[in-house]
Amino acid sequence: MSRTIIRGGLVITATEETEADVLIEDDKIVAIATPALAREWTADTVLDATGRYVIPGGVDAHTHMEMPFGGTYASDTFETGTRAAAWGGTTTIIDFAIQPVGRTLREGVETWHAKADDRCAIDYGFHGILSDVGDGLLKEMDALVGEGITSFKMFMAYPGVFYSDDGQILRAMQRAADNGALIMMHAENGIAIDVLVRQALDAGLTDPKHHGRVRHPLLEAEATHRAIQLSKVAGSPLYVVHVSATESVAEITRARHEGHNVFGETCPQYLFLTVDELDAPGFDGAKYVCSTPLRPVEHQAALWRALRTGDLSVVSTDHCPFCFAGQKDLGRDDFSKIPNGMPGVENRLDLLHDAVVAGRITRRRWVELACTAPARMFGLHPRKGTIAPGSDADVVLYDPDAEQVLSAETHHMNVDYNAYEGRRVIGRARTVLSRGEVIVDDGEYRGRPGRGRFLHRDACGYLT
User: Fold this and answer.
1) For residue 429, what pLDDT is reported?
2) What does the CA dihedral 146, 133, 92, 292 come to, rounded to 10 degrees?
């Protein structure tokens, strides 16, 4: 048995902050005690956390490694993407296994296992993406829930690719109500958006800035409202991904205040960037094309307020990187052909900590949004997302005073730009442990492909 002690840090969880030492045996946390009580502990390894926060490893519940989109693939593999996540203090990701249209969901899951198994540096799980709802798929959902894949994403956007109509959505939600799964929804009115895209292109409006204009915030809000109503009819929970618009926040808030199991996620890009990025000189705005799109700055106040009140529950990244050269430029003459997605898996904890420094959220809420809430939402808590006896020893020694400048020159994501290029932030993960093993230590990477384990998840831990 190997033993590690983390001494002298401020242990921060979603519920408390305590000056304490942490004892790890093999891959589990076994004790937390004040320094006086922990004085007699002995261990093979002692990590000095003086002046640092000791927090749970981050849980990013929304990533897309190697995702096919728009004739290309997301540029991070499970090897490069999980390595970058580790550098940023994230020790668990949940990615999306896509059902090929006309084929089985099981085939999609097996394809994603082939991509991820023996390549991940940190622990990982899968959601299923439902592309073709029928009787066979509904039975597959039951089986996969039993195998620890307990959440399934659907799209009200992208007709002809991932789109599901209201009848398909209702059937999947009804099944989820029976088998305990959580339906995740990309809520945008894709049918209406396609009309606006066609009209813009016919008028010769091809620049990246028009991506944000055709994906109107009211079309996000309308789809969010419709998804909520369908979930109420079906009696199933609903998790709305990458919420970006004030009007969508209002729909989620109303449903939650009425007592419904409706949850919302937002992402750093919506909190720190605006639609103005899409109007960057030349074609640089293509770097910021993602869906839902970036919004005018006034939407950010509603997002931050909802994060403070709990009406938005989770901050994930929707990490789906495409290189500017050779991928984003596929849409140089047609904004609708720009691959939708942005990088961010490495920068999430640091950006949110910078919000702590700015007074937007508390330290405990930072940990809750980035670690604890996603673990609870997707059936991983208390194994992940907290520091407690019996939890996996996924622990970050975080330097709250370190200053860094985010840049493509220094990040570890496999993409040729950083969405936050030149942004100065305060805070950085110095030492990262995954199941008790140090995988990042003060500028040195010690991880390796294949050490990450596939996670069998329970049902959502927030259901009432």
Assistant:
1) 98
2) -160
